[in-house]
Specification:
By secondary structure, the protein is mainly α. About 70% of the residues lie in helices and about 0% in strands.
């Protein structure tokens, strides 16, 4: 097949064959994303990157709070989420994450309040629905918990 190509086509094909492997081994991205750092357990590094925009961006605030929670800084995570919710009160993601944090801290009434607020904004919020099912399970409402888990 190669011998049937004209000289110009052979040159282009040869250039591609040599260029593609070189491009594959090109420079790697200097800085991994904060999300990939978080997912690989590099919480401190991810938190540093999230802090740069957490005061302006709800997604960064959410990522920062998750890093803080992963490293046991529950009070800092609560502060981060509270400030973010004050800026973006209509964010179901922030409210459901705060509900999950409160549940993890054993504050079931506060968790339930935040779950209800999150579900009022987004009835399909997986985090809020899962947290509500967990709240029902731990409070002995097993039938409600089972319905909650099945609805996920």
């Amino acid at each position: 097949m190669f011998w049937r190509l004209n000289t110009m086509q052979q040159g282009l094909l040869a250039a591609l064959l040599f260029a593609l492997p070189a491009m594959a081994f090109g420079e790697e991205k200097d800085t991994p994303s904060p999300r990939s750092l978080y997912l690989t357990g590099h919480y401190a590094e991810a938190a540093e990157q999230y802090k740069q925009s957490a005061d302006k961006d709800a997604t960064s605030a959410l990522g920062l709070a998750r890093c803080q929670t992963a490293t046991g800084e529950y009070d800092e995570a609560a502060k981060t989420l509270t400030e973010a919710i004050q800026r973006e009160a209509r964010s179901a993601a922030l409210l459901s994450e705060f509900a999950l944090l409160e549940f993890q801290r054993g504050r079931e009434e506060a968790a339930r309040k935040h779950v209800e607020a999150a579900l009022a904004l987004d009835k399909d919020s997986i985090t809020a629905r899962w947290t509500l099912a967990e709240l029902d399970r731990t409070s002995g409402k097993l039938t409600d918990a089972l319905k909650g888990y099945e609805s996920l």
